[in-house]
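Progress against Task 2.4 (sequence-to-structure conversion) is shown through the following example record, which the project officer requested during the mid-term review.
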Amino acid sequence: MGYAIETKKLTKYYGKSRGIIDVDLAVEEGEIFGFIGPNGAGKSTTIRTLLGLIRKTSGSGSIFGMDCEKDKVKILSEVGYLPGEVFYYDKMRAIDLLKYSASFYKKDCTKRIQELSDALALDLNKKIEDMSLGNKKKVGIVQGLLHSPRLIILDEPTSGLDPLMQRTFFDLIQRENERGATVLFSSHILGEVQRICDRVAIIKEGKIVDLRSIGEMRKSAYKKVSFSTEQPMKEFALDGAMQIQQDDTQTSFLYSGDINALMGKLASLPLINADVSEPELEEIFLHYYEDGEAKA
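Structure tokens generated for the chain above:
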């Protein structure tokens, strides 16, 4: 089985401004691949370059072995794409917009549109201008999947969806993967990626700073820890703790290691309060960068 997506030293500059630099990706056919990073990291630039929507500065990119620029038209017939923000003709009804989208593919998508709309509880007769952000996102999901694409590219797909609909969406994407579709899932929410993906590439400031399987990520999953004590503590230390900050009786840090060791350490302290939670990706990325340089 080959690669659904492959890039080598893919680079994009906007004038003198950085877009992405030397991005190397190899997404295998049939996998759900996570692409995560904070806003402005280069996720959308990578995706738009792959789809031929913007021209690369250097390097190469291919989808199913086809060149992302030379074979753009053929590639787009094989890809379903949901951008981070969707914009439509407000006066159109959802069904009319989706039928128009389906007319670009050499297949009857009528049944597929209805199945997807039913799954997402989307009112096809409603005008776009009368829809909430969440319902507009549903239209985008149906539009991206209506032709049963071989590759599904999702850029921040859950924004605007309520928690119950997010669960329905994840179930839908997993079913698409089970039928054979490859999925590139771009997000800044670590929990989403851990939930659905097989492997993950982490991008920061236009560069890939890590690539690992979800299994590896779970083994070294980060936790955000904060606690307060009755009296100011001396310098806090614990194997696996990083970015430790202490201010009077307050202590906070990121932790990667044995959760039992962490809980044992906390239990030995004269605590007033404690919190252990999932950190924001931006906080995790600080671990990958020291003095502005990406860690190996």
